[in-house]
Inverse folding.
């Protein structure tokens, strides 16, 4: 197999030039879908028979939680590709993914606490699901901290990639925690092998929010990766040209 | 062909993932019981759960068993896992979703009399999300949770 394509794709200049329009498209797409999904979910979806209106936190909580986990794979796989092929872009993507993932994890924990207080009667409980989500937050914070902890970017990249890879096992643990142990957190409502236990009238806006959050995630990831490319490549001629154009 | 150096690094990366996953699995298996949030009622009744120590029990609130004291803030009720029953007393405010035929997780000490004196009662919500109209039209008319549906309480 010829691996030349990977090196071309891993070139920061090529990536920066190709993704300029993507940023605009993803930005428009995510904002539109976020507004549509939020208005539909918060304003028009029916209330829940038992929880009343408090269930509506699902429209933020579930997409944030799912994408915080998917985003961890993106970060760790980018780190792994960087360790193997030493492509500049993969470490840039890894670094960019960490704070976004950390914020999404925090959003999932926070909205869960807000919902848990009236529903369960407590905002926090050390069950397997919530604890493993907290570990996910610490893993993200660990990658962010390691990125700052080294004099040389190269050492920072390699060390944080190893931490990201070691933490990968936590993602399936979070996903399966509600089945492997007894937890206060309920099992998943959206099921792949059988009928989902959420009514379609509530599921449609949730699906829109999923797409919206994914678009939002990649929008943030691209913006942040592009900024990081400019920072790391600031001494090159092509970045110099862009900066000159921008300052005029 | 993959460059031999990169191939070596690929093996190293795969080894990191495999070894760390194996460690996590071993730790997980070793603390399987400790990571459970609560004991089932039958484990408490059969004596598998520790006595005289604060533990958590999970089960469904037996319909008709909830008794609220008239003069003091004290509620007693039974929880069941379909196999055994456990009497619980609690002297604080119950969460909104607590009700008969619903799942609950209680924290407390099982006394000499086999009753659990709870310091905390939490309502457990299930994975069902339904609008009120739909909930009324389905067969499960008393809207009980799936986990507690069709449970035999008269054991």
């Amino acid at each position: 197999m010829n691996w030349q394509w990977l090196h071309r794709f891993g070139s920061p200049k090529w990536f920066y030039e190709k993704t300029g329009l993507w940023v605009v498209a993803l930005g428009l797409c995510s904002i539109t879908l976020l507004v549509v999904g939020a208005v539909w979910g918060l304003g028009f979806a029916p209330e829940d028979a038992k929880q009343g209106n408090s269930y509506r936190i699902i429209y933020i909580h579930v997409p944030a939680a799912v994408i915080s986990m998917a985003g961890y794979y993106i970060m760790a796989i980018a780190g792994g590709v960087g360790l193997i092929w030493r492509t500049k872009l993969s470490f840039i993507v890894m670094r960019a993914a960490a704070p976004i993932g950390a914020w999404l994890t925090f959003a999932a924990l926070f909205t869960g606490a807000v919902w848990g207080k009236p529903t369960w009667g407590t905002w926090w409980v050390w069950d397997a699901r919530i604890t493993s989500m907290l570990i996910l937050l610490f893993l993200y914070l660990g990658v962010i901290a390691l990125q700052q902890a080294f004099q040389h970017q190269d050492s920072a990249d390699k060390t944080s990639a190893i931490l990201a890879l070691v933490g990968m096992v936590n993602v399936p643990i979070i996903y399966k925690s509600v089945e492997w142990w007894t937890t206060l957190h309920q099992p998943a409502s959206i099921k792949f092998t059988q009928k989902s236990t959420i009514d379609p009238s509530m599921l449609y806006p949730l699906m829109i929010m999923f797409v919206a959050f994914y678009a939002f995630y990649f929008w943030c990831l691209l913006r942040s990766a592009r900024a990081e490319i400019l920072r790391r490549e600031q001494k090159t001629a092509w970045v110099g040209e862009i900066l000159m154009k921008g300052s005029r | 062909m993959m460059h031999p150096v990169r191939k070596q690094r690929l093996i190293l990366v795969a080894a990191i993932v495999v070894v760390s996953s194996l460690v996590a699995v071993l730790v997980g298996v070793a603390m399987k019981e400790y990571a459970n949030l609560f004991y089932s009622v039958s484990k408490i009744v059969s004596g598998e759960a520790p006595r005289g120590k604060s533990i958590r029990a999970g089960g469904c609130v037996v319909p008709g068993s909830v008794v609220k004291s008239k003069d003091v803030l004290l509620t007693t009720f039974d929880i069941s896992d379909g196999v055994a029953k456990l009497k619980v007393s609690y002297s604080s405010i119950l969460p909104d979703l607590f009700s008969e035929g619903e799942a609950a997780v209680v924290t407390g000490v099982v006394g000499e009399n086999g009753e659990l004196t709870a310091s905390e009662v939490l309502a457990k919500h299930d994975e069902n999300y339904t609008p009120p109209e739909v909930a009324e039209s389905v067969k499960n008319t008393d809207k009980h949770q799936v986990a507690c549906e069709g449970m035999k309480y008269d054991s």
Summary: The interface with chain B takes residues 1, 3, 46-51, 55, 58, 80, 83-85, 118-122, 125-128, 162, 165-170, 173, 180-184, 186-189, 197-199, 201-202 of chain A (CB under 8 Å). Chain A has one domain: 60-241. DSSP finds ten helices and no strands in chain A. Residues 239 and 245 of chain A are 10 Å apart (CA to CA).
